[in-house]
Design brief:
alpha+beta, seven-stranded mixed sheet, about 20% strand
Length: about 950
């Protein structure tokens, strides 16, 4: 019996044990995605005889004789299905990797099911959006909320469906398709039809002879490899090759990717003869199929010499602790003290904290702890490598940093840069986790040796056990304040756990100790911080890059100081936070010379959050919802954050803007699209400069052959760095077009004005197609280049507020109101920026309430599937109110600032402060799980826990 797929009979026969997901993808249905292979995420949802199923756990053989519909078959006769139209209209996606599965589930809903989305979408996870736009899409709302790009003290911007009486403010007009308009994502049509192409969405005929790689990983936390017997693996049918440390380059490098590779310690090899955590790659097996590669990896015979491990940073810095990288030259590898397991450290004192504490009327001292958190991008790490007809190494990868990947491969394999090309398709989420080289080096090694295409795709378990996490921080904090509300001293002793390798360890530590302290005026500050190796899964770049951990401690302490001196916490913040003219100081006596107040909206953000919480309290009272019963206590809490808009020490972008023969514009950029919205922003910036609409701008991106260089999409740089380059190129092109028009018409240049599709020169209008022809005859190139180096830099601000209710008998927590105000400068795309903020809030809620990568006493990650590691589902995320301060940044493109990382940062302390306000209990360790709340309430102590 055949399987009917999207109305056509498939002639293929499923392999024994094959799941429906892989069968459908092999038949060319790339809209069916892999997010978990455990039935947990819903990215692979398809219809079997009209019923939605998770195809990753549905045996393909069971589909024989049945009708299977994938996202590619949901539309009929060229007409989108209503749910596809709704997702397009509401822009119910960001990276889009989960969207096909989400739509396939929602397409079967009736009115009753749509009325209970928390229950009926529980099997579909999204890491990017925060679910509000998905709810709008499923329920047929446009999501195009008017006025969300300005503040309005009289009404709430979002959350209008959660409490009666909230209405959005009036719209502020924007030129359609340009700056300030809610332009839809250019890839929207492709996302909702399943035709957007991610890293592994490559038809088989384009990569003939494709081989598959699987990795043998270390079962031990610390060991030396004595020998590896390849013979048993090579005897497995289908196995082509085995690669070990003996076959790989011995050059030390870092998997972390920065513009300056010297920012990270050179402590890693492609394959090493020493393993330093459970899950580290030991050998790579390449075979004709995934199954054969897996069997080959299991067959390898490895002898290990076990070495003593150390699992906590507190133990790792003790005298006599095992030196994890003790054999390395600290100067050569840029490791601060390898024999003491210290990767990097900072020691600084401004003023005298002793004098500051002597002047204090109240002192708060406590140790705060943050946990490991996984990025859980829905698309796992994956790469394909092959050689083109000219012998050039081609890499297709799910990466945030294609140009830096190219540079690293050139360095590791001693290849000329021009002999490598790296392309990132659409990327299924990043959050910093794909600012690494974790798959590209291995497929390059195999492809160079075998001269055949090689693919490596991580499982969800490998994501948890063998990639990176957020750095756990232990922060011993002591702070003082005087009765007049002045902050007199801040002292922090910080210990960060970088795991087995130091990728991003220095940067995360330094950045964490930066803006978190600099946002407050205090003449006496002291920091002692160490980033420390342990024999655990490596940490790396994660949204916020160290700031969220430090801000949790500092903003919790700010509340405790305010309570201690009897002052309102927001008033205490207003008194002590920096304002224009104040130096922003953290660990150096002079401010960063290239960081300026390009604009300042922190005071507006505080007011917006405070006013919104006040209105929310009144709405609840008017609706009769303020009395939850005797077992419930209610509290409010807030926190603020500041972030530099660009990473330090250079972040570069080159872009090219051109006028094409058909009168449309093309923008070539290096930055990747992974739900951050940079594609839309580049189109809008170019359209604004060229007096057209974003729909007439084609953005080509994330291909190292397109432009000269781009540091990458991290540090929220997509808008303020690459966008600045795009704007510069577009403005130059506009002048060039006007110059050609002036020469063509004889008009003065000042009398020539670009309009949509033409140039008006006095009383004559010249179509752009004529401009193209004239330029060709004149030998004028209608393509211009833009460059930006990431400096000077500005600062962006976020303030979050919560109203919560806590059940004193059970520990249950209810979020009654969630509000965030952001200073994003001039907001290029309000709907898209709002989505970034909502997604950041949702991800942060998971981190503060339940997400934790747990490592047992043997160094093994135990939360290695999504069923054990709880990320927020639809039912877990409240609808947040989002407000924007009215500012215009002097350094950003057309006044814009960054707003991708920063919404995450103030959420944890704001929620902890709200719980403290409700219960009187200070929770200083994340996550603040319900059982912790229950036990603390049971003990009823007011001491920090």
């Amino acid at each position: 019996m055949a399987i009917e797929i999207n109305g056509a009979a498939s002639q293929a026969t499923p392999r024994p044990g094959q799941c429906l997901r892989t069968f459908l993808r092999e038949e060319g249905n790339f809209g069916v995605k892999k997010g978990c292979d455990g039935g947990d995420c819903g990215a692979c949802t398809v219809h079997v005889d009209g019923t939605p199923v998770h195809s990753c756990i549905y045996p393909a053989v069971r589909a024989e004789g049945k009708t299977v519909t994938t996202i590619e078959g949901l539309s009929k006769d060229g007409e989108l299905h209503p749910v596809q139209e709704q997702f397009l209209e509401a822009q119910g996606f960001q990276c889009g990797f989960c969207t096909a599965g989400m739509m396939m589930t929602a397409a079967t809903f009736d009115d009753e099911q749509r009325a209970n989305l928390p229950r009926n979408l529980k099997g579909n996870l999204c890491r990017c959006t925060g679910y509000r736009s998905i709810a709008d899409a499923v329920c047929g709302h446009s999501g195009d909320h008017a006025g969300e790009h300005q503040h309005d003290a009289g009404a709430d911007v979002s959350g209008a469906h959660s409490v009666p009486g909230a209405q959005p403010p009036a719209a502020v007009p924007a030129t359609p398709g340009q700056l300030g308009d809610n332009v839809p994502a250019p890839a929207g049509q492709a996302v909702v039809t399943g035709t957007a192409r991610y890293a592994l969405d490559v038809p088989a005929e384009q990569l003939p002879g494709l081989l598959h790689m699987k990795l043998l990983r270390s079962p031990y936390p610390h060991a030396r490899i004595v020998s590896i017997d390849k013979a048993p693996a090579l005897a497995v049918p289908g196995v082509v090759a085995v690669f070990t440390h003996e076959d790989a380059p011995q050059l030390l490098f870092s998997s972390a990717q920065h513009e300056n590779y010297t920012d990270d310690p050179d402590d890693s090899r492609v394959l090493d003869n020493v393993v330093r955590f459970i899950g580290q790659r030991v050998a790579a097996v390449v075979a004709e199929s995934v199954g054969a590669a897996e069997a080959g990896a299991r067959a390898l015979a490895v002898q290990y010499e076990l070495l003593e491990p150390v699992f906590t940073p507190q133990e790792a810095i003790l005298p006599g602790a095992p030196a994890i990288h003790g054999e390395k030259d600290g100067v050569f590898s840029r490791i601060s003290r390898p024999l003491q397991n210290v990767v990097a450290e900072v020691h600084a004192e401004l003023g005298s904290v002793a004098d500051g504490f002597a002047a204090a009327d109240f002192i708060h001292e406590h140790t705060y702890q943050t946990q490991r958190v996984q990025h859980v991008a829905m698309e796992t790490h994956a790469s394909i490598a092959w050689l083109d007809n000219d012998g050039r190494l081609m890499i297709r990868s799910s990466t945030q940093v294609p140009f830096l990947v190219k540079r690293t491969l050139s360095r590791v394999f001693n290849l000329a840069p021009e002999s490598i090309r790296v392309v990132a398709g659409r990327v299924g989420g990043g959050f910093g986790g794909k600012q690494e080289v974790l798959t590209e080096d291995l497929v390059a090694l195999a492809a160079l040796a075998l001269r055949r295409p090689v693919q490596l795709e991580f499982t969800r378990t490998e994501q948890f056990t063998a990639t990176t996490t957020r750095h756990p921080f232990t922060i011993h904090l002591k702070a003082g304040a005087s009765r007049d509300g002045s902050l007199t001293a801040l002292q922090l002793n910080v210990l960060t756990n970088t795991g087995a390798y130091g990728n991003h360890a220095p940067g995360v530590m330094f950045h964490g100790c930066g803006e978190s302290l600099a946002v407050y005026k205090c003449v006496n500050k002291k920091v002692d911080a160490h980033a420390v190796y342990t024999n655990t899964v490596p940490a790396g770049a994660f949204r916020g890059y160290g700031l969220s951990q430090m801000i949790f401690a500092i903003e919790s302490a700010i509340d405790e100081l305010a309570i201690g001196i009897g002052m309102d916490p927001l008033e205490f913040r207003l008194k002590n936070m920096v304002r224009p003219g104040d130096h922003m100081l953290s660990t150096t006596p002079e401010p960063e010379e290239d960081v300026h107040y390009g604009s300042y909206g922190l005071d507006q953000c505080v007011s917006l959050v405070r006013d919104a919480l006040d209105r929310g309290k009144e709405r609840y009272r008017a609706a009769g919802l303020d009395d939850l019963g005797p077992d419930w206590v209610v509290g409010e809490g807030s926190a603020l954050s500041m972030i530099d808009t660009v990473p330090p020490r250079g972040h570069f972008a080159h872009t090219r803007v051109s006028l094409e023969a058909n009168g449309r514009f093309a923008v070539d950029v290096g930055t990747a699209e992974f739900g951050n919205g940079t594609t839309t922003v580049h189109a809008q910036l170019a359209a604004t400069a060229l007096a057209t609409t974003a729909s007439k701008v084609t953005v080509r991106q994330s291909d190292t052959d397109l432009v000269e260089h781009d540091t990458g999409a991290f540090g929220s740089a997509g808008t303020v760095v690459a966008g600045k380059a795009t704007l510069g190129a577009a403005l130059e092109l506009a002048t060039r077009i006007q110059t050609v028009a002036a020469s063509l018409t004889g008009a003065a240049l000042t009398d020539c004005r670009l309009v949509d599709g033409a140039v008006e020169c006095g009383d004559r209008t010249v179509p752009l197609t004529e401009i193209v022809d004239a330029a060709r005859l004149q030998g004028v190139r209608l393509a211009t280049d833009g460059n930006w180096g990431g400096t000077p830099r500005s600062v962006a601000f976020n303030v979050h507020g919560f109203r919560v209710a806590v059940n004193t008998g059970t520990g249950e927590l209810r979020i009654l109101q969630s509000v965030q105000a952001a200073d994003a400068g001039v907001v290029v795309n309000p709907r898209q920026c709002r989505g970034q903020i909502e997604g950041g809030i949702a991800q942060a809620l998971g981190a503060v309430l339940y997400e934790e990568v747990k490592v047992d006493d043997a160094g093994r990650v135990t939360t290695d599937i999504l069923r054990q590691y709880h990320i927020p589902s639809f039912a877990d995320v409240p609808r947040s109110e989002v407000y924007f301060a009215t500012t215009n940044d002097s350094t950003g493109p057309l006044g814009a600032k960054s707003m991708s990382e920063s919404p995450f940062n103030p959420v944890a302390p704001a929620l902890a402060n709200a719980i403290r306000n409700a219960t009187g209990i200070r929770f200083g360790e994340l996550p603040i799980a319900r059982d912790k709340i229950y036990l603390a309430l049971r003990d009823r102590t007011t001491a920090p826990v």
